[in-house]
Amino acid sequence: MGVELIAASRNPKKIMEMEAITKEFGISIVSRDDAGLPQTEIEEDGDTFEKNSFKKAYEIMKMSGLPTIADDSGLEVDWLGGAPGVYSARFAGEGSTDEENNKKLLDLMKDVPKALRTARFVSVITVVFPDGRSLVARGETEGYLLEEEHGTNGFGYDPLFVPLEKDVSYAELSAEEKNMISHRGKALRRLRELLSNETIRG
Length: 202
What we know:
Elements: E1 3-7, H1 12-22, E2 27-30, H2 49-64, E3 68-77, H3 98-108, E4 118-128, E5 134-145, E6 161-163, H4 175-181, H5 183-195
Parallel strand pairs: 1-2, 1-3
Antiparallel strand pairs: 3-4, 4-5, 5-6
Helix pairs in contact: 1-5, 4-5
């Protein structure tokens, strides 16, 4: 297909994870920095993954004038009523680190039995085109939370989340193994289906 998209995200690990999948079907992703775009932070003030994903893609598309891809993703914990959800990246406060977010989550889930530690990762990926079109793809992976971190791969809540398809955490899987079952992988493969019916044009 030979398509190039600007990434709204400035998270290099997220961009690498996305491109590891998209390159399989001919889509390369250019980071905002490599595209020479301003380092403006886009406020994620939506109450759904869909709203935040669209806003990020739309704002960067306006800056660049090029088709833009954005991902909004997070962890939904049933015991916490769906939290942290859209606040996953800043669960422990604005500017919080992965370690701080994970510690808060573990503290809130202390002594909760395994049967009640159910959770899911959600990813919503949006592509916005300069001509006004947009595509939205959602992926979810069900699983449960560990009582302590396991593994050093991945990022975010990966060391605490075990997908139902496996008996180890996201962070104990190789990138290839994770991409096969992850929420983001599912969303990107759905996006491929949507893109197959579209013509990418600037």
